[in-house]
């Protein structure tokens, strides 16, 4: 790379988190950034879709690549001056392909939803039938919600999970596929805690001549670390986010075989997006580089081990954990035994400093809580801390809970595991 040392010397600190300068220029906004950092550091972040990116990823995000317009693809841009961002995108693409064993990667989708939109745009026409997990069972908005483009433009048929076991019922999906003859079958969920049998989905799709789209937004980080099965060998198209367990910047990507490469690329740009966000793509490259290290493999397995311990410890304290446990970074639980609906439970937990989501539960219209271990594991927590979290969790749900005391105890726990080193 032709970056001279003179150029480097002239820009000793051209970017990065220059918070002092921001504080002088815009104290009002700087205050918000600090308050948010403090909020993230001062409580237990148990939202299954969140994580703490590395300082290296944040540096790429805060770099002057944010200034660059780059419509098109490396070597074929509609704007000049793309010689460096082209290299950044090629590195991101090569790293993604190597990490997941994919023939083709598109790293431009602005989000997970944009990646799914591109997959549909590449493979489907408006009005086509698509078989996906129903939203009441853990399907994503992009899997046919009437409030989303997917539900408006396609005919979605929803499959569920077994009401008793909470597990995917592959025979039910096969029967629905035979009845409805979908053009595509979608596998992937926002709250399913078990591994997905991509081979079984492939067989179902093949039997009815459908495409198989894996929306692996949640488990893709575990896949990178070898802690969950890889959908790439089975699915025609894999959509993913880069900011969940994978620990990269907010964004999406699409992986596919060479046969669909051109259709996917055209579906991302120019069909559904304009200029690529090159700072985010550079940050994706940094995150893929981190995810290829042995340390990340250790991390991914520890995320799952922590989730398993958390599920056991919560069960021991009276929570009903869906499917009886987890294979992944997330688990869902019913708070009914505590006489609490999920919203009230979430509120009590928030008062004690534990941040998480409510989610759909398998048996009908009851909602539960969804927790994930990606963020707390990044902070360095292990089995002992999971047991402690379960204890604090159950205490917060009891009628005689003392939120003030619990808040202090949560604070004492997280203070030992700062997500970012102090300056
Ligand atoms: C998170 C998620 C998405 C969407 O990601 P965004 O970046 O929020 O658009 C799509 N599908 C599934 C299954 C997800 O879990």
Description:
It is a single chain. The chain has 423 residues and is of the alpha/beta class. The protein has two domains: 60-291, Type I PLP-dependent aspartate aminotransferase-like (Major domain) (Aspartate Aminotransferase, domain 2, 3-Layer(aba) Sandwich); 295-414, Aspartate Aminotransferase, domain 1, CATH 3.90.1150. It contains 17 helices and 15 strands. The chain has helices at residues 5-10, 19-25, 27-42, 55-61, 83-100, 112-123, 149-153, 170-180, 198-208, 220-224, 258-272, 278-291, 294-316, 342-351, 374-378, 383-397, 403-415; strands spanning 44-45, 72-73, 76-77, 104-106, 129-133, 155-159, 184-187, 211-215, 237-241, 252-256, 320-321, 330-334, 354-355, 357-360, 367-372. The strands form four sheets. Strands 4-10-9-8-7-5-6 form a seven-stranded mixed sheet, sandwiched between helices. The protein has a four-stranded antiparallel sheet with strand order 11-12-15-14. Strand 5 (129-133), helix 7 and strand 6 (155-159) form a beta-alpha-beta unit. Helix 6 (112-123) packs across helix 11 (258-272), helix 13 (294-316) runs parallel beside helix 16 and helix 16 (383-397) packs antiparallel against helix 17 (403-415). The longest helix has 23 residues, at 294-316. The radius of gyration is 22 Å and the shape is globular. Residues 7-12 have low confidence and may be disordered. Pyridoxal-5'-phosphate binds next to helix 6. The site of pyridoxal-5'-phosphate has 15 residues, from helix 6. Belongs to the SHMT family. Its cofactor is pyridoxal 5'-phosphate. Its EC number is 2.1.2.1. It is an enzyme of class 2 (transferase). The record marks 243 as: Plays an important role in substrate specificity.
């Amino acid at each position: 790379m032709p970056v001279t040392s003179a150029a480097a010397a002239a820009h000793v600190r051209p970017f990065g988190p220059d918070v002092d300068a921001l504080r002088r220029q815009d104290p009002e906004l700087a205050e918000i950034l600090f308050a948010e950092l403090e909020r993230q550091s001062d409580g237990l972040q148990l939202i299954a879709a969140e994580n703490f990116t590395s300082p290296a990823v944040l540096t790429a995000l805060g770099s002057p690549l944010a200034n660059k317009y780059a419509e098109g693809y490396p070597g074929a841009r509609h704007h000049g001056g793309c010689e460096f961002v082209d290299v950044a995108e090629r590195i991101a693409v090569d790293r993604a392909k190597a990490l997941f064993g994919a023939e083709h990667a598109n790293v431009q989708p602005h989000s997970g939803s944009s990646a799914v939109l591109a997959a549909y745009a590449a493979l489907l026409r408006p009005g086509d039938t698509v078989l996906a997990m129903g939203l009441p069972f853990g399907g994503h908005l992009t899997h046919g919600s009437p409030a989303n483009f997917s539900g408006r433009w396609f005919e979605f048929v929803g499959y569920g999970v077994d009401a008793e076991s909470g597990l995917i019922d592959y025979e039910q999906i096969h029967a629905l596929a035979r009845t409805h003859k979908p053009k595509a079958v979608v596998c992937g969920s926002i709250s399913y805690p078990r591994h997905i049998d991509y081979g079984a989905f492939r067989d179902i799709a093949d039997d009815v001549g459908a495409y198989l789209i894996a929306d692996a937004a949640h488990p893709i980080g575990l896949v990178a670390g070898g802690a969950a099965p890889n959908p790439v060998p089975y699915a025609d198209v894999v959509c993913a986010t880069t900011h969940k367990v994978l620990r990269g910047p907010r964004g999406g990507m699409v992986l596919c075989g060479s046969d669909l490469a051109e259709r996917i690329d055209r579906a991302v740009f120019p069909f559904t997006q304009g200029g690529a966000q090159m700072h985010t793509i550079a940050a994706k490259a940094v995150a893929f580089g981190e995810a290829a290290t042995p340390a990340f493999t250790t991390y991914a397995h520890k995320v799952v081990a922590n989730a398993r311990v958390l599920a056991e410890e919560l069960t021991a304290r009276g929570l009903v954990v869906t499917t009886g446990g987890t294979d992944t970074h997330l688990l869902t639980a019913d708070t009914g035994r505590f006489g609490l609906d999920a919203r009230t439970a979430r509120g009590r937990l928030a008062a004690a400093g534990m941040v998480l989501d409510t989610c759909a539960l398998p048996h009908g219209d009851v909602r539960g809580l969804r927790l994930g271990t990606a963020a707390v594991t990044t902070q360095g927590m292990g089995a002992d801390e999971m047991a402690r979290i379960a204890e604090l969790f159950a205490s917060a749900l009891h009628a005689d809970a003392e939120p003030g005391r619990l808040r202090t105890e949560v604070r004492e726990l997280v203070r030992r595991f700062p997500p970012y080193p102090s300056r």
